[in-house]
Amino acid sequence: xxxxxxxxxxxxxxxxxxxxxxxxxxxxxxxxxxxxxxxxxxxxxxxxxxxxxxxxxxxxxxxxxxxxxxxxxxxxxxxxxxxxxxxxxxxxxxxxxxxxxxxxxxxxxxxxxxxxxxxxxxxxxxxxxxxxxxxxxxxxxxxxxxxxxxxxxxxxxxxxxxxxxxxxxxxxxxxxxxxxxxxxxxxxxxxxxxxxxxxxxxxxxxxxxxxxxxxxxxxxxxxxxxxxxxxxxxxxxxxxxxxxxxxxxxxxxxxxxxxxxxxx
Length: 264
What we know:
Number of helices: 9
Strand order of the largest sheet: 5-4-3-10-9
Distance between the termini: 44 Å
Helix content: 25-40%
Order of helices and strands: EEEHEHEHEHEHEHEHEHH
Structural class: alpha/beta
């Protein structure tokens, strides 16, 4: 562990200095998408394969023209998949479109109202994808037991939610996230529920390796400015974690020593 707020971490054998991963949906146009991502400093961008053209629809605007794979690590995701088979097919489509690309973000959702993960189908899909040679980053709930099981299956990163997707509620259960981090031997990245910069900083202060977000930036009144704020929050939170915060105390503690005062 170093004293740098931007010390690197590794995914699938590749090292990254930015711990902020960003999505590409919900922006007003591709120009805003690229501007926000540039402001965020993100090196990894996630793309919903079922909602975004990555070359499967010839003649339509291709997101890879705006976010070229030689500049960014593309993280195809299975957003919008509500069963294992659809999620696995989506990952295989992404691998074909990206010339054998193995890094994917798996999410299998349980219902359209909450967008909570279907844990049983997520586990089943993860097992199949790992056996098929994919490097799987997996979205899941904040259950430490499930998180550890997904790690043991062979997922290269586990991504517990902070709160429901797109809710902006921030981290609802800090203790569970801390437990997941403490038990993990793979990177832990908070995914879903971040609303503003302070939420991102809290995730990093808890010891997470990174944060993935989309709506918190794209739905801001000024997305590019929010992307810049998120970048700074990630760096500040990481630096605070490395520094080690003071113990919380119930009562006041003088910031200046009182021993040896001249009037004693």
